[in-house]
Input
Amino acid sequence: MTIYNAEPYLRAAIDSLIGQTFPDWELIAVENGSTDGSLAILEDYSDFRVRVFPLKENIGRTPALRLAFEQARGDYIAILDADDISSPDRLAQQVEFLDQHPEVALVGSWAQHIDEQGRIFDEFEPPSDQEQLQDCLGWTNPIIHSSAMYRHQLAQEAGGYPENIVWAQDLALTLALAQRGKIAMIAAYLCQVRMLAASMTRSRKYQILIANELLLLFKQAADTLQLSLKARRLNRRARAIAEIKLGIATLRSVSFGAGLSMILRGFVAAPSSLWGNGPARRFFGAKF
Output
């Protein structure tokens, strides 16, 4: 768990671990230089399984995840973000699943989306069929990070979370693990993911970064995974959409010429599927 200014939700996240039916766990809590009361909450816990690593300043999400990864000692690593909640039997179900399926490198689960008050407003149900799940990796990320449990040794062999990925480090690691084993899904709601209004607002600079990373990772998926023909079409569409979004953000904030070139490349890559895309239609003034 990495923590930055998570005071309103942190206690609920940790309590969801304390209440697990599976008792043999440890929490690696990297306190990433918070300016609120997050560290004080962590220090309230006397449970020996809660290991706190306080930092003087925010070093960023990926470096904090890498630090937590380096400190982990178990055979399996489970992720829980500081504002999310694990169901009481999450660890038990996922440990049992990995024990029984040695060919699986990572297992996720269905999730419920909750608002700032903890009210459920949506559900996330990726396919549990492994071939369909792998196909999804070609054009989206079907694994909620707070639902993931993966094999420590395989993740070490993959290099852990890539240092050069700032936003989509979870997808990057999942793709690396998919080359070393199967990706699986438990069709049960084992976590609740809190959707915060602040996390949904992105600067144009950040939009450029996100689009760049998605372009890189979806190309990697196409190059390394055995995708079905349908998934390859969706992969081309996802890469084209990322290129168009990158172009729009670049056009508005960096360079008109460079941005327009990216937009055109995106349309050339997948013209028929992209014309039905809402953001592209709106940008070009289409009314239907």
